[in-house]
Amino acid sequence: MIVHIDARSPVPVFEQLRSQIARLITSGQLGAGTRLPPIRHLATDLGLARGTVNKVYEALARDGLVASAGRHGTVVLDGTHATASAEDLTSAADSLAMVARQLGLDPTAAHRALDGAFSRI
User: Fold this and answer.
1) What's the domain count of the chain?
2) What per-residue confidence (pLDDT) applies to 46?
3) Among 3, 52, 83, 92, which lies 20 to 30 A Cα-Cα from 66?
4) C-alpha 18: how far from chain center
5) Are residues 18 and 56 in the same domain?
6) Are residues 60 and 18 in the same domain?
7) Domain span at residue 121?
8) Quick one: 62 and 12 in the same domain?
9) Is the same domain home to 16 and 59?
10) Distance (Å, rounded) from C-alpha 119 to C-alpha 113?
11) Higher pLDDT among residues 83 and 18, named by residue
């Protein structure tokens, strides 16, 4: 599982991690039955507190995307039925606009950056 945390981002670390894992699940990149990394390992790899990763996993479980399998860790549920809503996209757009403003960029620069991101994926 590849996730990236940007400590300089105004988006809280919790939300960065939660939204990235949720997108990996809903897009099918993390299929049903896939075991997520143990909390301790993911926290160490990302330089985060274990409590932060634990709260992310709990939030994903509340959203019906993962389930705790006890000693067997946290496993991905079938997330293909979970769809991104217009609200999710609006939230992501708000985050991009906020970061662009904090960086002192104008809307045109933000649009170019978004176009570039689409061309890279």
Assistant:
1) 2
2) 96
3) 92
4) 4
5) yes
6) yes
7) 85-121
8) yes
9) yes
10) 10
11) 18
The rounded distance, in Å, linking the Cα atoms of 117 and 44 is: 28
Within 1-121, strands assigned E span 66-68, 74-76
Apex 39 CA angle, 2 and 99, nearest 5: 50
User: What secondary structure does DSSP assign to 75-93, as a single string?
Assistant: EE---TT----HHHHHHHH
pTM for this one? 0.70
Which pLDDT score is estimated for 97?
Answer: 84
Which residues are within 8 A (CB) of 24 and not within 5 positions of it... i.e. 6 or more apart? 1, 3, 30
Tokens of 23: 């997108």
**Helix, strand, coil fractions of the chain, as percent rounded to 5:** 55, 5, 35
Residues with Cβ within 8 Å of residue 40, at least 6 apart in sequence? 50
What pLDDT sits at residue 72? 84
Which helix (H) or strand (E) is 42 found in, with range?
helix 39-46
Clarify whether residues 34 and 93 are in a common domain.
no
Residue 62 has pLDDT above 80, yes or no: yes
